[in-house]
Amino acid sequence: MTTTTVRTPTPGRRRRRPSLARREARWALLFLAPWIVGFLVFQAGPMIASAWLSLTEYDVINPPEYTGLDNYRQLMSDPQVARSLGNTVYYTALHVPLVMLLSLGLALLLKRVGRLQGFFRTVFYLPVMTPAVAVGILFLLLLNTQDGLINRGLALIGVDGPSWTTDPNWVMPGIVLMSLWSLGSTVIIYLAALQNVPRDLYEAASIDGAGGWARFRHVTLPMISGALFFTLIVNTIASLQMFTEVYTMYFGNRETQNTFNSDAATFYVIHLFQEAFQFLHMGYASAMAWLLFLIILVITLVQVKLSNRFVYYEGEEQ
């Protein structure tokens, strides 16, 4: 008769398999690692360095010299900062509402074209793919006072076109006109939102006697208010950071610089770029960057706070 000996494992030698939650957390960290490394190296790291440099006087050549809040005090008294910030706010106030209105109108038209919707959707979005430098050069040619296509078109109907690139009073309207070139992305967002509005709501409104304007006001706008709110924030942030197209048009061409007052087209980011890479005032430029960050943060928080009054979220009790 044979006997078998059962060995009980020693508690200290027992290997514990990691729980499912821990294994999922490890895999999640593994997949997130490239983003985390990129964020630390290319975003968080430069932000910390910029915050430190904003408290110093640094010209790239010599080591940074700590100056405390002197750069921020200088910002408050620099007339060029106030002028460039005023130009940026003025452009944003013109650009954002105009882009949203035109994009919504085009999206409403695209919704009605039927089978050709895909073609026109592509046509409207293609300009967004155009490099910003190419857009600046293109509109520098289109807005040319003498040979520009826009002024030639106005001349055909008997209108004497303005000096878009040389008259300080028309520089900003010309820039706003140029900015409409890339409204295709906003059009696509609005078109997607319009297509998600339930048809039942329109039918119910029609049965109740609502006309076209009433249906648009009480059905369409509330149902796409989320998309409107999103594009409001995104376009506002992009407008406050306007740089490439304007710099290409007015500061990348020596002939253009000699024919107009550059103050009319000096945006805040352009002034920041000049301070950093033209005059090598890296500490001062870092302080300017943090001021812009705070301005964008405050404006975004205000927009989010006000959104509770006009943004409709499906499923919430009204």
Return the CATH class: Mainly Alpha
Task: Count the DSSP helices.
Answer: 15
- The global form is globular
How would you write the strand order of the largest sheet?
1-2
Q: Using the 3D structure, state the CATH architecture.
A: Orthogonal Bundle
Main beta sheet: strand number and arrangement?
Answer: 2 strands, antiparallel
Task: Evaluate the radius of gyration.
Answer: 28 Å
Fourth CATH level, the homologous superfamily: MetI-like
Low-confidence stretches: none
Number of domains: 1
- According to CATH, the fold-level topology is MetI-like fold
- Going by helix content, strand content and strand pairing, the class is mainly alpha
Termini separation comes to: 81 Å
Rounded mean pLDDT score:
87
**Helix amount, in percent?**
55-70%
Instruction: Give helix and strand order, one letter per element, not per position.
Output: HEEHHHHHHHHHHHHHH
Describe what this molecule looks like in 3D.
It contains 15 helices and 2 strands. The protein has 318 residues and is mainly alpha-helical. It has a single domain (70-310), classed as Orthogonal Bundle (MetI-like fold), CATH 1.10.3720.10. The chain has a two-stranded antiparallel ribbon. The chain starts with 19 loop residues before the first helix and ends in an 8-residue tail after the last helix. The mean pLDDT is 87.
